[in-house]
From TrEMBL:
<dbReference type="InterPro" id="IPR000281">
    <property type="entry name" value="HTH_RpiR"/>
</dbReference>
<keyword id="KW-0238">DNA-binding</keyword>
<dbReference type="InterPro" id="IPR036388">
    <property type="entry name" value="WH-like_DNA-bd_sf"/>
</dbReference>
<dbReference type="Pfam" id="PF01380">
    <property type="entry name" value="SIS"/>
</dbReference>
<dbReference type="InterPro" id="IPR047640">
    <property type="entry name" value="RpiR-like"/>
</dbReference>
<keyword id="KW-0804">Transcription</keyword>
<dbReference type="InterPro" id="IPR035472">
    <property type="entry name" value="RpiR-like_SIS"/>
</dbReference>
<feature type="domain" description="HTH rpiR-type">
    <location>
        <begin position="6"/>
        <end position="82"/>
    </location>
</feature>
<dbReference type="InterPro" id="IPR001347">
    <property type="entry name" value="SIS_dom"/>
</dbReference>
<dbReference type="InterPro" id="IPR009057">
    <property type="entry name" value="Homeodomain-like_sf"/>
</dbReference>
<protein>
    <submittedName>
        <fullName>MurR/RpiR family transcriptional regulator</fullName>
    </submittedName>
</protein>
<dbReference type="Pfam" id="PF01418">
    <property type="entry name" value="HTH_6"/>
</dbReference>
<dbReference type="InterPro" id="IPR046348">
    <property type="entry name" value="SIS_dom_sf"/>
</dbReference>
<keyword id="KW-0805">Transcription regulation</keyword>
Length: 290
């Protein structure tokens, strides 16, 4: 079966330029509504994408599958990967473990994740996200789930130095209304969501999008359902030899994004940094070296 090392979406992206107009229309529909669009019948998929059934057959065959049932089998396996529990994940990694130290195995997995992540990021899309967040006329909000909320917090802590009007939204729903009151059309919501995808992230993304906010989603290679309402999406590879997924590749994306924004806003950012240093010195925030 094709694409053992690639997700279905990666396979589609790799072959997109060689597709016909109708096949591109179908491929775009699949990636926008993945995986829901391809879990139903071939007729339903064709109708949803406004293409013919033979177009569906041609596309899956171009991707290297025998037919639509073969294609769906791989999609369902990806869905199972999304929902895997930490215990099942640990058991899978524990089987057939090579005779090397955990430091080496984990580092190899992380380096592989980073290479795969950087290899699939669209530079134009990344630059567009940086430009969006550098626009001082837009407020920026960030939120994450149970694990990824720490990534949102890290992002906001640094972005508050880079520019004004940046806020962290709590991952508890009772904190959303005050944040949503201040979120207007054109403002930016950066949302983090990795498997096992959380309903509260999806709900807030939907509410923000309904208010006209520009949603930027950072997710994993299997893609959060929140992607359907996001304007931009950056996917990171996260699997590691542990009961939990690795967020190293996400951290690299976040830090690189902040560096890109900083370069676009440097005049304002430099002034803010100088003023901040003055305030730190006045408050004696840091210990002085002897």
């Amino acid at each position: 079966m094709p694409g053992a090392a690639k997700t279905v979406e990666q396979q589609i992206r790799a072959r997109f330029d060689g597709l016909t107009r109708a096949e591109r229309q179908l491929a775009s529909h699949i990636t926008r509504h993945y995986p829901v669009a391809v879990l139903g019948s071939i007729t339903a998929l064709a109708k949803g994408a406004e293409v013919s059934t033979p177009t569906v057959v041609r596309l899956v065959q171009k991707l290297g599958y025998k037919g639509y049932p073969d294609f769906q089998t791989v999609v369902r396996a990806e869905v199972e990967e999304r929902l895997i529990s930490p215990i099942a994940k640990h058991d899978r990694w524990a089987g057939g473990v090579p005779d090397t130290h955990i430091l080496n195995r984990f580092a190899d997995a992380v380096v592989g994740n980073l290479q795969a992540t950087l290899g699939q990021i669209d530079h134009a899309e990344f630059d567009a996200v940086a430009g969006l967040m550098a626009d001082k006329n837009r407020k920026i909000f960030a939120m994450g789930g149970r694990i990824t909320h720490a990534m949102a917090d890290y992002f906001v802590t640094h972005m508050k130095v880079i520019r004004r009007d940046v806020a962290l939204i709590s991952d508890t729903s009772n904190a959303w209304p005050p944040a949503l009151i201040d979120m207007g059309p054109g403002d930016v919501l950066l949302a983090f969501d990795i498997r096992r995808y959380e309903n509260n992230v999806l709900t807030l993304v939907e509410m923000a999008a309904d208010q006209g906010a520009e949603v930027v989603l950072i997710t994993d290679q299997w893609v959060s359902p929140a992607a359907e309402r996001a304007r931009y999406r950056l996917s990171a590879h996260i699997e590691a030899p542990s009961a939990w997924d690795s967020t190293v590749a996400i951290q690299v994306l976040v830090e690189t994004l902040m560096a890109a924004i900083q370069s676009l806003t440097w005049e304002e950012t430099q002034a803010r940094m100088k003023r901040l240093e003055e305030l730190y010195a006045r408050a004696r925030f840091f210990r002085r070296s002897k």
